[in-house]
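Private note to self, pasted from the team thread so I don't lose it. Backbone tokens:
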């Protein structure tokens, strides 16, 4: 099945014919699937995970980062028009898996925005300065040192509100991974020479042992981390390693209703402590949406709201922002799709008539 997407962005008319038929034997999008506003140019191998960097001085210059996972993979950089910024693409990464973005890490005495990528087959993190994508990690940051399972997969960045400390929370492939302490957390710091180093903070996180853990998302404002135990549910912990009960699981959502794998997680903020958690129902080509806030009886019980059908095929990774951007006045939702592309959806289309739309100015993105 193919459809055409025609939109105008920054005065540029875009017309793309998109193949959304899926792989042989795999279902394509549902008839009522939401259509993307933009489909990116294709990468070389296999898209996996996106991140959104908001240019707070010039929202039109915001960027979408996305991994292309292979032994000669790359971190791609796209504009809001879906075009590849060839001068910013980072190549020579040994199977990049997931990527996340954070703001205002102090490097050389200056607040610096960074992108952090898992380099799976090299067992390390890579750190790049935004927006020029210059490496600032001295060649890479080893993770899971001394463990049997070291192939890094998922990553999410957490900025602690109390002191601005930045942490990377990292997951790994399931081969010989432990049932307790599946994830490791590292504080990212300038070593005094302008090079970012990783300081181990803790291991945490329960695993069902059924498949693997890849997708991770952090709610900076509320201080929680969510991760997909793919064939079980989405587990919730405190993101701060110094929290009194940092080793205790706070709750689990998404125990049922999924076709198979629970994958990409993203959080849309509508207000202080309110909003939505979107989780990829991968084999169903849909996203299941839960309340960001808990119930009155249990702050860690997140009610299921609805499932939405999208045009992505077996989406692994996703990200969302409520920042108003050109062409996306109430926010942007980005999701990976088979076909070596990422889809850009308007929050207006995701929200429909039932979900809230709460745009924020670009300057608030780093908070």
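Design output:
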């Amino acid at each position: 099945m193919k459809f055409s997407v025609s939109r105008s962005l920054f005065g540029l008319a875009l017309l793309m014919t998109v193949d959304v038929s899926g792989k042989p034997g795999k279902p394509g999008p549902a008839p009522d699937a939401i259509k993307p506003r933009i489909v990116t140019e294709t990468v070389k191998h296999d898209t996996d995970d996106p991140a959104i960097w908001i240019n707070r001085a010039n929202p039109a210059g915001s960027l979408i980062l996305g991994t292309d996972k292979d032994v000669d993979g790359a971190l791609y950089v796209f504009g809001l028009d879906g075009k590849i910024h060839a001068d910013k693409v980072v190549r020579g990464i040994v199977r990049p898996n997931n990527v996340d973005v954070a703001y205002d890490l102090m490097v050389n005495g200056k607040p610096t925005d960074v992108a952090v990528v898992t380099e799976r087959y090299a067992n390390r993190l890579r750190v790049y300065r935004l927006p020029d994508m210059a490496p600032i990690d001295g060649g890479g940051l080893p993770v899971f040192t001394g463990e049997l399972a070291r192939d890094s997969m998922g990553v999410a960045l957490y900025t602690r509100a109390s002191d601005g400390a930045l942490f990377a929370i990292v997951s790994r492939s399931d081969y010989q991974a432990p049932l307790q302490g599946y994830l490791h957390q590292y504080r990212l710091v300038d070593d005094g020479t302008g090079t970012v180093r990783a300081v181990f903070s803790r291991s945490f996180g329960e695993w069902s042992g059924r498949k693997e853990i890849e997708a991770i998302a952090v709610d900076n404002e509320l201080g929680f981390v969510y991760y997909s135990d793919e064939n079980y549910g989405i587990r919730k912990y405190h993101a701060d390693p110094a929290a009194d009960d940092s080793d205790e699981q706070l709750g689990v959502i998404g125990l049922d209703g999924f076709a198979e794998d629970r994958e990409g997680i993203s959080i849309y903020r509508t207000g202080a402590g309110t909003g939505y958690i979107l989780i990829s129902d991968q084999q169903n080509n849909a996203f299941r949406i839960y309340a960001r806030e808990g119930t009155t009886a249990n702050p860690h019980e997140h009610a299921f709201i609805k499932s939405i059908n999208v045009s992505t095929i077996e989406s692994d990774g996703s990200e969302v922002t409520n920042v108003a951007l050109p062409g996306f006045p109430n926010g942007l939702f980005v999701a990976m799709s088979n076909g070596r592309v990422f889809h850009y959806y308007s929050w207006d289309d995701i929200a429909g008539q039932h979900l809230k739309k709460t745009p924020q100015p670009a300057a608030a993105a780093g908070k």
